[in-house]
Structures are given as structure tokens and as C-alpha cells.
Amino acid sequence: MRQLKLVGLLSLAWLLVLFGLSSPALAGQAEKVITIAQYADAVSLDPQHTNDNASYSIEKPMLEGLIGFNEKMEQIPQLAERWDASPDARVYTFYLRKGVKFHDGTPFNAAAVKANFDRIRNPENKLRRYTLFKIISQIDVIDEYTVRFTLAEPFGAMIATFAHPAGGINSPTAVQKYGQDYEKNPMGTGPYKFQEWVPNDHITLVKNPDYWDKNNAAQVDKIIIKPVPEDGTRIAMLQKGDAQFINAVPYSMAEVVKADRNLSLAESESIYTFWVAMNVQKKPFSDLKVRQALNYAVNKEAIIKAVLRGHGKPANSSLAPQVWGYTPVKTYPYDPAKAKALLAEAGYPNGFKTMLRGTVTTDAKEVMVAIQGQLKQVGVDVEILSLPAAALSADRFKPLAENRGEMDYAGWSPSTGDADWGIRPLLTKDNWPPTNFTIGFYTNPRLEELVKAALQTSDSAKRKAAYAEAQQIILDDCPWIFLWVNYLLGGTRANVGGISIQPDGIGFYRSVHYK
After folding, report:
1. 309: left (phi over 0), alpha (psi -120 to 50) or beta
2. Phi/psi of residue 435, nearest 5 degrees
3. How far apart are CA 88 and CA 390, in angstroms?
4. How confident is the model at residue 23 (pLDDT cuts 50, 70, 90)?
5. Contact 170, 65 (CB under 8 A)
6. Which residues contact residue 105 at a Cβ distance below 8 angstroms, ignoring those fewer than 6 apart?
7. FRET partner for 415 with CA separation of 20 to 30 A, picked from 3, 55, 337, 408?
8. pLDDT confidence band for 162 (50 / 70 / 90)
9. Which element (helix H / strand E) includes 22?
10. Are 310 and 252 in contact (CB under 8 A)?
11. CA distances from 387 to 401, 404, 462 (A)
């Protein structure tokens, strides 16, 4: 009887296939699905209205720019085959791919490009990434597959800005159709298409069978991204096989992943630099010898080992090695005796009292406590002020006269991958709070000249030379206690490849595949 029932079930399955039907169980066996447990849900799926890495991680398999980044954050052609820039860095011309269509069937062409950048540079649209592209003063459609951008002023970092994920090109038809709801209904040109978004539960992307780049087509049928903020839950999902990739693995759990033969740790050197900004407009930090002393007083290697579990390296520049324009300068080795001598020379033989601000996250607290203990060894008494992100930002962005900042623990990722965005927002006078993130109120006339000079040309050699000198000045002036460059950790099942976390912290999901 059991045999007859089994034959009957098999016959039913065959008839379903024969008549073009299939049971969910049988269909699911053939479908290649990747589930990703990500630390947060998307906020928006419109690249022009996105300012968080969780959202960009989900957008990038669907939306492409004129230029993009590969998994190592190297610039690559995407919807533009090639481009050129005028010597004065004011005019940029792109030559577009032919035969590309958006997911809704709308043709990709120069008119679509113009519509996208007209949209983002219009302040009335109030898009979050307006500031990146507001410098564009004119866009000309030269022909169906050639578009020219003219800037209001020279800006040598513009190619890197176009490569930023905010430069993702949306279907103008879909933007018009959905209006403000477009951020929940994205239409791009990428290897995966949007299927659904159930907030706080999952976002589903499906294979685009008509993707223009057959050499880099989607290798799985479906990607499901689940928001899982709790670290331990993500690890458990990976161990059980409920997720094939997790973004991210906390440093404290890296060894758990490495010890499991069914799992693999995906480690990427980041473009983040971490540092303690000192308010150079206030005593005692206005004294160079004090700033040098504090650099010698902090044992970076010890904190990397204890807090980052070894997943980092001491900074030898204000920029991380993966950033375009990086030049290694020097590190400040741990030398408490030298620190004490410099403090004595500066008139602080018994040290001084100060305050160190930072976030309330566990890692930040651990770092600040470690720095507090090390500075205590050279006579500097540090009070730690841990604040929630919103309160900390409000405190930091007060102007100099109202700002109570003395020392600030922070990190920065130049999301364009270019030296400009790793120096200008952090270390120039025009970017003092409340304008931007020069939270130590540092300025140096020569550095200001170099930053401006690097933006006046599209010549990469001239730009690199200017940034090399700039980095030397920054390390010599010590406006920061230079700490480290960290590594970003993702976790994969051993049978999965082609997926990682980019150096800027954005998940690289588009090439995921089963081995």
C-alpha cells in the first residue's frame, strides 16, 4: 500500500509538470536562493535619497551608475563605456552603452541620464544626496548616447563623485509613475530586479534575465535580505544555514565563524580611518608638542588587539591605503617616555585634565576606556562622555564659540573613494562645524592651498602630488591622535562565493553564487 501511495504521488508530480504546473516544493528545489542577514533594514531604495550603507547594499545589485566600484572599490565602467574631462576640471563628457534597458523596459540613453541628474540637483526635490551633485550647472544631451556635464566651478574629484552609489541611474518612467513612492519601487538596469519589500522583515530581489552584461549576469535566482540587528542572531542564522551571508560579523565573534568548517570569514580592508580629533583652538591642544605627546602616549597595537581582535592596523596617514591619492607618511610609535618629555617641554609636567567624547556603542566605549587608561600613564586625566548618536552629532556640530569639545573619538569613510573626501570635510576651515566635520577646528594655510589646487585640475598626477604633500602636513601637525584602519568582516557559508563587504562598508552582493 505504501508503494502504491508513493507511485501515486510521483505520478501526480509528473502530471503537474506535464501540464505546465508545479508544486511549490518541487519548484523550490530548482531555484537558487541566497538569504542575507543584514544588520539593518533599508531606509530608502532610491540612491539619490539614500545616505546609509544598509540601503546602498541592497540597491547596488539593482541600480548602476555611469561609473561604479568593484568589490575592492576600484572604479569601473558601468553604463558609460568611457568618459573624458576637460583639463580645468569643469566639463565632463560620457559616452554611453547602447542597447541597455531599465527593468520596466524604458530605454537607457542620454535623456535618461539628464533626467536623473536634473532631478538630484534640483533643491526643490529635497533629495538627501543633493549636495554631491549641486555643483553641476548644465547638462547637455549631445546625441542619444553622449551626455555632457558642465560644473559651476572646477572640481577635480567629480569622476569619483559620479562613482558614488548616489550616482545610480533610475528609470525616469518609474520616477514619474511612482513620485514620492519611487524609493519603495526602484527600477534600475542591474543584474537583479526589485520584487518586494516587507519593512522590518525582508526585501526580495530576483534575477534580471535581460541584463545587458552577459559576462556578469546574476548567478542565483533570488536574493532575500533580512534585517537582523542582533549580532548573535545573525551568527546563529549563518551556522544553521538559514542565511548564506551575514553583514556584519562583530570582532568579538570572528573566531566563532573561523572555527566552523562550514563557514568562512570574509575580511576586507576598509577605507575608514579612526582617530581622536583634538580641538586645536583650545589649550592645551593648541600646542603642537601636546598633540605629539598624545600620539606617542596611545598604544594603537594594544587596542587593535584587544578591541578589534587584531582586525586592523595602525594608521600611517590621514587616509586609508585603499583610498585614491593615499600616501604613507609615518606612524607615531608607542613611547610613553617621549610623551612625558614632550608634555614637560610644553609646560605640563604633571599632565592636565580633559574630556573625550564618543558614541555609546560597545566598541567605542571600549576604545575610549583604553585610551583613558593609557593617557593616565603619562599624567593626562580623561573624563569620558558617551552620547547617543543624535545627541553627539548635535553637540559636535555647534560652532567654535559654543562647542565644548576637547577630544573626540571618531572614524570616517570617504564614500567617493577619493582623497578629496578624506581630507576636505575633516581638516579645512570651510568645514568647521556647523558646516561639516572638522570637529577639531583645525586649519593650515598651506593645506588649504593644496586642497584647492587638487580640485582645479583633472590631471591625476598633479592631484596625487598635492594630496601627498597635504598628508605630510597633516601627520606633522597632529590635529588628531592617529589610530588605525580597520577591517570589515562578513560571514559566508563555505559553499558560497562572490560576496563580501566593500571597503566603504557597503555590501557587495551582485556577484554572489554557489560554488
Report:
1. left
2. -70, -50
3. 40
4. very low
5. no
6. none
7. 408
8. very high
9. none
10. no
11. 21, 14, 42
Q: What is the DSSP string of 153-213?
A: S--TTHHHHHHSGGGPPPPHHHHHHHGGGGGGS---SSSEEEEEEETTTEEEEEE-TT-S-
What's the confidence (pLDDT) of residue 29?
59
What is the distance between the alpha carbons of residues 280 and 114, in angstroms, rounded to a whole number? Answer: 44
Q: Pick from 272, 265, 269: which is nearest to 246 by CA?
A: 265
75, 159 contact by CB (below 8 A): yes
Distances from the Cα of 399 to the Cα of 394, 412, 432, 433, 505, angstroms: 11, 20, 8, 5, 30
Task: Give the angle 446-486-200 at the CA atoms, nearest 5°.
Answer: 115
Report which residue type is found at 186: P
Nearest to 32 by CA among 219, 241, 203: 219
Burial 299-314 (b: 16+ CB within 10 A, else e): bbbebbeebbbebbbb
Q: What is the pTM of this model?
A: 0.91
Model confidence pLDDT, tens digit, residues 224-261: 999 999 999 999 999 999 999 999 999 999 999 999 99
Q: H helices then E strands: how many in the chain?
A: 17, 22
Main-chain dihedrals φ then ψ at residue 402, nearest 5 degrees = -105, -5
